[in-house]
Design goal:
Elements (H helix, E strand, L loop, with lengths): L3 E4 L1 H5 L10 H10 L3 E4 L5 H7 L8 E4 L4 E4 L2 E5 L4 H12 L5 E6 L3 E3 L7 H7 L3 E3 L4 H6 L2 E7 L6 H4 L1 H4 L7 E4 L4 E5 L5 H12 L6 E5 L5 H5 L3 E5 L4 H6 L2 E3 L6 H11 L7
Parallel strand pairs: 1-2, 1-12, 7-8, 12-13, 13-14
Antiparallel strand pairs: 3-4, 4-5, 6-7, 6-9, 9-11, 10-11
């Protein structure tokens, strides 16, 4: 029986407009009635996830920033900070990539420069709580940073324009392609899968009692950490390879369809 469900957001649970499916509230009530915990697991900021799930913010477990910050009841469960010297090195490397728009991610607040001005509205979809500062370098020394995100805000071709040069940093830090737009840099050994395994231990839930839904490369480890893994039809080929089953795309509300099937089949929760 499935007792804990993890779902990526963009390209997975959310529709093509970045919105929750209209029937999510009713679906969540069905899950809750059967004692199921639900955990959004995203590259998005914690504040962005809380805003999206405002009606259930005190009930859900939030796996934010690709597993570098996990919270419940607005209390941090665990996090993974980057070393300050590594943050400085990552920012310097990103400055050499013309396509890369950087976001410095703290636990509760993100930092950007005025360079983001033409794309600020789009950026705030992912980083609701954001401060515009003259220079990111001092922030890297003063604040606990859990992730450095780089966006191809102009063309959404991060795999070709940002990932190749930044992937050379991989080793002392972890570089992951999170979507067509985003490349994230985190502490080594940190990802959504690690966060899932930590939550499994914390909550006393076995991997085979967990399900996960995803669409992009930052979801691969999460899918490998659960017994029931689902890739969207719109997913990256490597994600489909990692999942046990392919389901309809996010534009056809594939997560909702699969949850409904599992509930109707009695595969979720207790009697």
């Amino acid at each position: 029986m499935i007792r804990l469900i993890f779902s990526d957001m963009d390209g997975t649970l959310l529709d093509e407009n970045g919105k929750l499916p209209a029937g999510f509230g009713a679906m969540y009530e069905r899950l809750k009635e059967r004692g199921i915990r639900f955990a959004p697991a995203s590259g998005r900021q914690y504040a962005s996830l809380v805003q999206t799930f405002a009606a259930w913010r005190d009930e859900l477990i939030f796996v934010a920033e690709n597993g570098t910050f996990v919270a419940r009841h607005d209390e941090e469960l665990f996090s993974a900070e980057l070393d300050g010297d590594d943050v400085a090195r990552v920012l310097a490397a990103g400055a050499m990539v013309p396509a890369a728009y950087p976001v410095l991610c703290g636990k509760r607040l993100a930092y950007v420069t005025e360079r983001w001005a033409p794309y600020m509205e789009n950026m705030r979809q992912y980083f609701t709580q954001c401060a515009v500062v003259p220079d990111l370098a001092p922030i890297a020394k003063e604040e606990e940073i859990i992730k450095v995100a780089f966006c191809d805000a102009e063309f959404g071709a991060a795999e070709e324009r940002i990932y190749p040069p930044l992937s050379r940093l991989d080793g002392p830090v972890r570089v992951v392609l999170s979507s067509h737009y985003w490349v994230d840099v985190m502490r080594p050994g940190v990802n959504k899968g690690v966060a899932v395994r930590q939550l499994q231990k914390l909550l006393g839930v076995a991997p085979e009692e967990c399900a996960a839904f995803g669409d992009y490369l930052n979801d691969v480890e999460m899918l490998s950490a659960v017994g029931h893994s689902f890739a969207m039809a719109n997913a990256h080929p490597d994600v489909k390879e990692a999942a046990r089953e392919e389901i309809p795309p996010n534009t056809a509300y594939g997560v909702m369809t699969k949850l409904r099937e599992l509930l109707d089949a009695g595969a979720i929760g207790g009697p």
